[in-house]
Design brief:
Layout: H1 9-20, H2 29-34, H3 40-50, H4 57-72, H5 82-91, E1 97-99, H6 104-114, E2 122-124, H7 137-146, E3 154-157, H8 160-168, E4 172-176, E5 191-193, H9 201-208
Parallel strand pairs: 1-2, 3-4, 4-5
């Protein structure tokens, strides 16, 4: 979802900075880039440990979630080309899932803003899996809910953690080089694109070996 359907990475980074600013912590772009695709509860634990914060997990997580929902509630811009791709896949009868590390409430909020929620066969959030990306749990759960073998799935991801999780799940992977998702290693992906408009059903068929049509 983040950075692929909607361009949320700038908002995630802003939320992380706002959440840690009361503690005098100023996160660098490199640090923020390294956290991309990480589930929020794990991220808060890392913040507390790495920066030796004198705060409980519950208090920090509540602050983060409040900031996140407030900022996202103002609306998030779509990634150019993604909405059309989702509609095309849905019209062709190809099942689609969201596999996001974000919490369930945020995923529902964002999908409702897109107006495309009904086109997804399955939605898996960070609350639905035991381990976050780069572990494969979220994507494996998405495949199970779709009723599709992992080896028949294609993940589109814009982060190192997302691409790593996709390949660990035994899935094909398209790496999307979102200009707002800097510093991400997408080299393990089977195919890397700079625009979502490059992705067509024909190209996905060629990637997976699925017979055209």
């Amino acid at each position: 979802m983040d950075g692929v359907i909607v361009d949320t990475e700038p908002l995630h980074k802003k939320t992380e900075r706002v959440t840690l600013s009361p503690f005098g912590i100023s996160l660098t772009d490199g640090e923020l880039d390294s956290y991309m695709g990480t589930e929020a509860s794990l991220l808060m634990t890392r913040f507390i440990e790495r920066y030796h914060l004198n705060v409980t997990f519950d208090v920090l997580y509540a602050s983060y979630k409040s900031n996140l929902l407030r900022l996202f509630g103002e609306g998030v811009p779509p990634v150019p080309g993604t909405y059309d791709l989702i509609r095309t896949l849905s019209k062709a009868g190809i099942p689609i899932a969201v596999g996001s590390s974000s919490n369930r409430e945020l995923v529902r909020l964002v999908l409702s803003q897109t107006g495309l929620a009904d086109l997804f066969t399955a939605v898996v959030s960070g609350d639905d899996a035991a381990r976050s990306k780069p572990h494969p749990d979220i994507f494996l759960e998405a495949a199970a809910r779709l009723g599709v073998l992992p080896g028949r799935c294609v993940v589109i991801g814009d982060s190192t953690n997302g691409v790593t999780a996709a390949k660990a799940a035994g899935m094909f992977c398209v790496g999307f080089r979102n200009p707002n998702s800097t510093g991400q290693d997408l080299t393990p992906a089977d195919w890397v694109v700079r625009s979502m408009e490059e992705i067509t059903i024909g190209r996905l068929d060629a990637l997976t070996g699925r017979p055209a049509g």
